[in-house]
Specification:
Blueprint (H helix, E strand, L loop, with lengths): L6 H8 L8 E3 L2 E3 L49 E2 L6 E2 L1 H4 L4 E5 L16 E6 L5 E7 L15 H8 L4 E4 L4 H10 L6 E4 L8 E2 L9 E2 L2 H10 L12 E3 L9 E8 L4 E7 L4 E6 L3 E2 L1 E2 L4 E2 L4 E7 L1 E3 L10 E3 L3 E9 L2 E9 L7 E3 L7 E3 L3 E7 L3 E8 L15 E4 L2 E4 L1
Parallel strand pairs: 5-8, 6-26, 8-9, 12-25, 19-26
Antiparallel strand pairs: 1-2, 3-4, 5-7, 6-7, 10-11, 13-14, 13-27, 14-15, 15-16, 17-18, 19-22, 20-21, 22-23, 23-24, 28-29
Length: 410
């Protein structure tokens, strides 16, 4: 019988460390890799014993690759619904304090910037019926916002629903008095350009007062300066996902007319948005994003307005009956229902209800609130859902014969 070299030397030649293992199992032995055929396992299947290196075995570098550790899976990001619009955002974004900015709507102020990044936009009559906007920001940072204009008391009341940082440039005597009395967080946090001028600038391609601007970075810093840093209240409105495409109508139009601006919304089925037009038909495009303004929801509120007796009748300022209830139309997913709005107190949220008194569900995304005098013109025309079409049958595949040059139909 030929003498074999020691195992350690044989392993070194082969480049693999192997040890002959004999393991007792139920009186039987499982033969090692060098001992012939493997023995049967208790279940009757063949089991091969894997060799293991022992002390003294020679293992050339690189001959055995150790198993790579399993990578740690990246944690799934946690998202929560933003209070103003229901959009899923990070918890940090959902805790950002809400900022409300007064925006000019004089013809010389158009097109205005910041609309694409606002979560909620309010529009209501101001001087003698000429409207004004209030843009409410939270999770998005606008590149440019303006032109910024002066405060009105009823806008302060709507901003107070969130104790927002209320950004403006001056205001009516009524509004300024409210801000002096309740502008340290009781209603809002007063962020007047007259005091915080370093957060604003005037552009040179427009004439005053329609040329005052700011941006998201300065607004967030300004909110911190006026101590508007606490997380916002819980959501006041209910939100649901977009309706399926087959349930959305084709067409549809809303129109509201102020003294100096007629707003038209045209429903777009594909995007489930209401494309916005101003001045009776001009596409409203936000210069900061180059996109047409197109909210997911439009709410039209009827409200009683009257002349404000503030000692300046020449200004033709207005006051509104903001606390109470009134008629509202709520448009979402291409459909419009008639209901009511309710606001029980200055700081209580304005909520919307259907004809049966149930809180309505808005679609996740931006909402425009159009506040109208009871005498203002409102026109609503919903589209129609296309008739359900029969499903297209799956075509029977054409048989093919394969030849050397490829398939040909037979």
């Amino acid at each position: 019988m030929t003498n074999l070299p020691p195992i350690s030397r044989r392993v070194g030649v082969a480049g693999v460390a192997v040890t002959v293992l004999s393991v007792a199992l139920g009186g039987a032995f499982l033969q090692g890799a060098f001992g012939g055929a493997p023995a049967a396992s208790p279940s009757g299947s063949a089991v091969a014993a894997l060799p293991s290196p022992t002390a003294g075995d020679s293992i050339p570098p690189g001959s055995i690759s150790p198993a790579s550790p399993s990578p740690t899976p990246a944690p799934t990001p946690i998202l929560v619904a933003a209070p103003l619009d229901g959009v899923l955002v990070s918890p940090a974004a959902a805790r950002l304090h809400i900022i409300a900015v007064m925006i000019d709507d004089h013809s010389a102020a158009r097109p205005q910037s910041g609309f694409s990044d606002a979560s909620v936009v309010w529009q209501a009559p101001a001087e003698g019926g000429i409207p004004r906007y209030m843009l409410m920001f939270q999770e998005r940072t606008p590149k440019l916002v303006g032109p910024v204009r002066s405060a009105r008391y009823y806008y302060v009341a709507w901003a107070s629903e969130w104790r927002a940082a209320y950004v403006h440039s001056g205001g009516s005597p009524q509004a300024l008095q409210a801000l002096r009395d309740k502008g340290q967080g009781q209603f809002v946090y007063n962020a007047d350009e007259y005091r915080w001028g370093s957060s604003f600038w005037r552009v040179t391609n427009r004439f005053p007062p329609h040329n005052l601007y700011t941006d998201g970075k300065h607004l967030r810093a300004l909110a911190a300066k006026v101590k508007a840093t606490a997380p916002p209240a819980k959501a006041a409105w209910l939100f649901s996902p977009d309706a399926p495409l087959e349930q959305r109508p084709v067409g549809g139009r809303l129109q509201v007319s102020y003294l100096a601006n007629t707003i038209i919304y045209r429903y777009d089925r594909a995007t489930n948005t209401y494309r916005r037009f101003v001045a009776g038909g001009v596409r409203q495009v936000d210069p900061s994003t180059k996109k047409q303004v197109a909210p997911k929801n439009v709410v039209i509120m009827r409200m009683v307005f009257g002349s404000l007796n503030d000692g300046h009748p020449e200004k033709k300022r207005l006051e509104a009956k903001i606390v109470g209830t009134g008629t509202a139309w709520i448009a979402t997913n291409g459909r419009t229902i008639k209901g009511t709005w309710r606001k029980p107190s200055i700081t209580a949220p304005t909520r919307f209800y259907d004809a049966a008194g149930h809180a309505v569900h808005l679609t996740v995304g931006q909402t425009f609130v159009q506040v109208m005098m009871t005498t203002d013109v409102v026109k609503i025309q919903d589209g129609k859902v296309p008739a359900a079409s029969s499903p297209t049958p799956t075509p029977t595949p054409t048989p093919t014969a394969w030849v050397s040059r490829g398939p040909i139909a037979i």
